[in-house]
Amino acid sequence: MTKILHHYLNGQRVAGTSGRFSDVINPASGDVIAQVPLASADETASAIVAAAEAFPAWRDTPPLRRARVLFRFIELLNQNMDELASLISEEHGKVFDDAIGDVTRGMEVAEFACGAPHLLKGHFSENVGTNVDSHSIRQPLGVCAGITPFNFPAMVPMWMFPLAIICGNTFVLKPSEKVPSTALRMAELMSEAGLPAGVLNVVNGDKESVNVLLEHPQIAGVSFVGSTPVAEHIYKTATANGKRAQALGGAKNHMVVMPDADLDQVTNALMGAAYGAAGERCMAISVVVAVGDETADALVARLIPRVQGLKVGAGMSVGVEMGPLISAEHLVKVKNYVDIGVAEGATLIVDGRDLTVPASGKGFFLGGCLFDRVTTDMRIYKEEIFGPVLAVVRAQDFNVALEMINAHEYGNGTSIFTRDGDTARTFGSQVQAGMVGVNIPIPVPMAYHSFGGWKRSLFGDVHMHGTEGINFYTKLKTITSRWPTGIRSGSDFHMPTMG
Question: Is 114 a catalytic residue?
């Protein structure tokens, strides 16, 4: 009998009532391993109501007590790390060590959030006018919602709910229906850590539940990570309904390789950055811009045997470097992009389309693909593929490489490999991207900094986690006060001043 995964409402698992289900598939085998209910509009609204009812008491809970819940949650994450990583690997397909990293990077945000007693402190100014003081405070928004993608079942939800909750909000999480188990298990661990019922709710669903989250009057803020077309829709719809919104979209991350770079270091960096998690990362390097033909030729020569030798298989198998893609549909999509690249005239020097993985059944495997002599007018350069496909573009000099990146519609992350400090500093200053690495292939900021791109990689003004995350999940209030030193009479009708 197929396992049914339920919603998590008011501190417990709750069976779905819509009668609609989605299959949860192990991408390494193609087997259906569970079914997840797709919430109706009414079910989604009930989760919002539960969060709204829990809000007043949680808002009034001192930040230190909220932090103690997160401290216990972090302990439970550590104790259940292997279980969570196994759930991720089974439903997403990424290798076990990468799944451990998924949980760990999310946990770092929860660790940062434990500093709420300090992070939520306001400012005080004495005697801004005669006997007048001003102070500012940050207060929670209310009920917030998070809509998360399939590629990071632990990390991306933890970019959202720990910060929202520590700030005094309550939360409704709508994870990807492809990878629901990790979010549900984390919600259980939050309850075990002492989180009151209703503060964190998990609703499984599709567009129907998303629309409710975007339109319901009791939702105050919405966070989203996913593709750019959906991110734009989320942002416009949420803000049109009077909600605060942050929506992170797609990417086409470039790595510039200068002639003075250590090419062995570059090759090692690219293998993980381009092919880790089968390229299904919003910070994956999908374009390498080699400056000069000599640099490009030497880099390609190093990459070919490494890409050909990638160990591809089920994520839980020992020694595997790259797992399957998330679904049969996505496998077809990525293969089609490889076909398009060939048709457009790019040189396919490593072709992973015919890869077979023994004993994989109907798993969704694709070998690493490597293109050379890609040009900026090609679709495989312009569009996000989200698979293990790396494009080598040749630039005649640094300025051409920089202009290439700045002209792209996405501006999520980028990196440069060089030994020259002046080149690196110029790149960091002038490149139009939200996250920049210098000899770092995937420049994902640590939790106490903030994550977010530029241009069509981000809709909204505030990035994820770090102090920007605290600001997103709170609103600023400034209080100006004067306490009379004696009895005063009469009214004053002119504009108040601080003289």
Answer: no
Domains and CATH numbers, the chain: 3-249+457-479 (3.40.605.10), 253-438 (3.40.309.10)
The single residue of 114, 144, 167, 282 carrying the catalytic annotation is 282
Report, as ranges of residue numbers, the positions in the chain whose pLDDT lies below 70.
486-490, 497-499
pLDDT in tens, 307-354: 999 999 999 999 999 999 999 999 999 999 999 999 999 999 999 999
Crossing angle between the packed helical segments 263-275 and 293-308, to the nearest 10 degrees? 50
pTM confidence score: 0.94
Beta-strand pair 132-140/474-482: antiparallel
